[in-house]
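assembly run, all chains below
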Amino acid sequence: MSRHEDSRTTPSTRTAADDYRPIAMDRVREIIGHPPPFIAAKKESHLGEFIIRFIAHSTFFCLATADDAGHLDISPKGDPPGAVRVLDPWTLALPDRPGNKLADTFENLTRNPAVGLVFLVPGLREVVRVNGDAFISDDPELLHMLSADGRPAVLATVVRVREVFSQCGKAVIRSRLWEGDPRHLAEAVLLGGGFYTMHIAENAAKMADSLGDQLGELTTIAENQYRNNLY
Amino acid sequence: MSDGIRALHEMRVRVRQVRWEAAGVVSVEFSSPDGRQLPPWRPGAHVELALPTGIVRQYSLCGSPQDRSSYRIGVLRERASRGGSEYVHAFLRPGQCVRLRGPLDNFGFRRERAYLFIAGGIGITPVLAMAEQAAAWGLPWQLLYGGRTADSMAFLDELRAHRNNVRLYPKDRAGRIPLDEWLERPRSGTAVYACGPESLLTAIEERAAHWAPGSVRLERFRPRPKPTRPDTDVEVVCERSNRTVIVPAGRSILSALEDEGLPVTGSCREGVCGMCRTRVIDGEPDHRDDIHTAGDDMYICVSRARGGRLVLDV
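ok done. output:
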């Protein structure tokens, strides 16, 4: 590992990554296989009612942006639940609070509008992902809408939604992310149902096509996956 | 009355019903999850609703005080909502549990000889309960109720039972409430209770300036715009706690006492909700709130002192 010591002081020499050769997608597919049709078809072009409810209770999300050369940046954002506002099924507004003047995200957004978002709700294993294009706004009414603690947001990021999908809870389970939540947000999102019950309720027709008889068992399948197929 | 106000209940309640009442207005019914009776209240009272997202808002109770099994509020969805009315409309659903504090009574609704009620838009909520009470007492009353359009005016179906006492003014068809006509001649023994947008309340204050003092009572959703008055330091003696706090200019008495860990409570922090009502033992308060029913009390979130020193029952 002495080579790594060198690479810290003299970058652009060989690094650990150079010990490995990239493989192509066909080799990746050989290893992981192909997704079942219902997974491949799960992307939507707008925010459904349940996804909106999910985002309205989310306290934590990560925002990925890229510069004009395609270099990516990802930034975790935490706020009281409901800080990200759904303006309509095609539009999100993200608040920027005072304090962080680093502005990597804003630098990127002014050069390249592409964003990727992942939303989490304390106590829920499944996550919601949104990809789209964003721009920065200083509209006073919008900043007022994004107030926290009686103070308006400093800036707003407006996201035009391109694709929306939810993702199963394996990552959250493996990381043991939630220690329990006194606010009962998970309860508030699910209204006594389960994540997949709510999801199926909204997308029944499409999922019946792709899942057939398995549709009614989706919760069982997911629970089984969480229990027996985590690694 | 102030004793009733200080006995603040905090409770967990379950949403029993969410009902579309008019364009942009829903009513929400809350009941105790274990079926227990809810604390009593008088017409004009409001509760503080804490949503699962942590947002806290005040809403007038608009059901029947006789029915202790549930509370009802009416909520207008604000176009540029900061998340409160949006949550109630878009996400609050039957079965969900939320926290309530109150009820609080700032209006001070009392038995009078006759009533003139005036409501603008969602301001109907406290007025509805007061009008129902006046009807139950068999006292003479009139309600003038204005709104943008008939579509946007909530509880019209319930008011139909009192159609001889109610005048509706949907602005697009009937124009504004003719306040001059109704307020020109002060009627002794008649109390005016009004709730609505600032423009309506300001107009009522102007038109009813010649009415007997105390006969016109208003409730505001938001603090009235007022010129900023210069602040000076206030020496606050908290008698029960045996502590003295110097509140610097630019800082509220409420937040200064909170920082010192003293037992005070607040909510709106802009002089409208009444949560921070505190008894004054000595000193002259400089009242800056929009509630105007302080008596020997003051609202420490906005009010200050005239003599630079106050002794409070804290």
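Strands of chain A lie at 60-66, 72-78, 85-88, 91-96, 114-120, 127-137, 155-167.

Chain A has ten helices and seven strands.

not gonna interpret more than that til we talk
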